[in-house]
Structure formats: C-alpha cells, structure tokens
Amino acid sequence: MRGIEGTSKANADALNNGHQLSPVKPIANRKMGRRGDAIFESVKLELGCIETAAAKYQTKEMYDSLLKMPIVLRDMLLSATFSPLILHEARIIGYRISGGSVSLLDVDIPKGFVTRRN
After folding, report:
1. Mean pLDDT value of segment 28-49
2. Fewer CB within 10 Å of terminal CB in the chain, N or C?
3. Position with higher pLDDT, 27 vs 53
4. How many whole angstroms separate alpha carbon 84 and alpha carbon 81?
C-alpha cells in the first residue's frame, strides 16, 4: 500500500495512451493519474484503492467514490488482466470509508468489455 493520496499508474497509462505534444515529433505528454487516499499494489500491479473522509462529506463521496474511483478501478482491472484468459475472472476492489459507514466497490468484467460494480 502506498501512502496518502497516491496517484494511480494504471489510470495515468490509460489517460496517456496515444497522447503526443506534436504530430511531427512524438514527445509524450504525460498526464498524472487520478489520486486515491491509498492504493494497494503488489509487484507493480495496482489491485485496489481506498477513499476516506473523516465525516459524512457528500461532495467528496459523490466526486471521489462514485465518479472518480470506478474509473480508476476499471483502469487497474484492465492493467492487471494482461491475459484474455483471466480478463473475465479477475476482480479489483475499492473501499469508501466516510464517517461511520464503509462501502465496497467490487469491479469486474464478466462478459465482453462492460465493467460492472457490485
């Protein structure tokens, strides 16, 4: 697990796929990935993340947990499933901790390429 507000490498790679500064000279225009309060990784693979808030803070819950986190988790899932054989079997986990409640986001791709959250 990396420290507080780590940047997702999988999300940065997805954002930067094919970006260049100039059509003549291919210089990578590297954008930073979205941040998470904590990112779980093992052997350079990101496997999940956490978003936390000290109290019920609705704006953070909406933006971070319901809008940002599913995108980051999907990018992590696609990055971790480098083999088509395991694409439909793999899962990536995210937690939202806000005030006294804990919510789990379980992201998978059971068929095709539509990501679902459980």
Report:
1. 76
2. C
3. 53
4. 7
> What's the whole-number mean pLDDT along residues 8-12?
79
Beta strands in 1-118 (DSSP E): 6-7, 35-36, 38-42, 45-53, 91-98, 101-108, 116-117
> What CA–CA distance (Å, rounded) separates 16 from 95?
26
Position 3 scores a pLDDT of: 45
Q: Domain map of the chain by residue range?
A: 6-117
Q: Which among 10, 116, 114 is positioned nearest to 70, based on CA atoms?
A: 116
Question: CA–CA separation, 32 vs 97, rounded Å?
Answer: 24
pTM score = 0.69
Q: CA-CA distance, 79 to 27, in Å (whole number)?
A: 23
Q: Quick one: tokens of 14?
A: 């997805």
CA–CA separation, 81 and 87 (whole Å): 5
Residue 1 pLDDT > 60:
no
User: Which amino acid is it at 104?
Assistant: L
